[in-house]
Automatic annotation (TrEMBL):
GO terms for cellular component: cytosol. Pfam families: dTDP_sugar_isom. It comes from Geomonas silvestris. GO terms for molecular function: dTDP-4-dehydrorhamnose 3,5-epimerase activity. Catalyzes the epimerization of the C3' and C5'positions of dTDP-6-deoxy-D-xylo-4-hexulose, forming dTDP-6-deoxy-L-lyxo-4-hexulose. Residues 141-162 are annotated as: Disordered. This is dTDP-4-dehydrorhamnose 3,5-epimerase. Its EC number is 5.1.3.13. InterPro entries: RmlC-like, RmlC-like_jellyroll, RmlC_Cupin_sf.
């Protein structure tokens, strides 16, 4: 990553987004978050977690060296999602992609290694996000270094949320 890169808006190579379909009935709704028959085996989740983000709060920006994240933004809040392609060998190196996801636009998002990412809850209520990364947090038995490069506290970071 170079601090001198000027990121331009666009779509990032290897980032996948897909609308999540809600199947409604008298009980409520159901949404399939992932299916093994629709996912590259290298991206198959090895663990899963759910996080709650309070209104106005952001998570990130950070990136991973080896891990691919598999996020699902389902609500009850909306999020502004930020992505920066910091992969020097990528055809979209230097591209910044921004979109909204959540209750108004349920979305699955695959973020490959080297793509810096962040999301901010832009609603007035708590928001829930599912993640099924393809690597275990801190490795087997939580005995390895965490695969995360944090940019949140860098004053001169090119990864600024608007």
């Amino acid at each position: 990553m170079s601090k001198t890169v000027s990121y331009q808006k666009g779509r990032i190579h290897d980032v996948v987004t897909r609308p999540l379909t809600k199947f409604l009935d008298e009980r409520g709704w159901l949404s399939e978050l992932f299916r093994s028959d629709e996912l590259d085996p290298a991206l198959m989740p090895t663990m899963a977690y759910v996080s709650m983000t309070q209104p106005g709060v952001a998570r990130g920006p950070h990136e991973h060296v080896d891990q691919t994240d598999y996020f699902c933004f389902i609500g009850p809040a909306n999020f502004k999602v930020y992505l920066w392609d910091a992969r020097k060998d990528s055809p979209t190196y230097g591209v910044k992609q921004i979109f909204f996801a959540g209750v108004d636009a349920p979305t699955m998002l695959i973020v490959p290694p080297g793509v810096v990412h962040a999301y901010k809850n832009v609603s007035h209520e708590n928001g829930i996000v599912f993640n099924g990364p393809n690597r275990l947090y801190a490795g087997p038995g939580k005995r390895e270094k965490v695969d995360e490069i944090r940019h949140e506290d860098e004053a001169d970071s090119p990864f600024q949320l608007e």
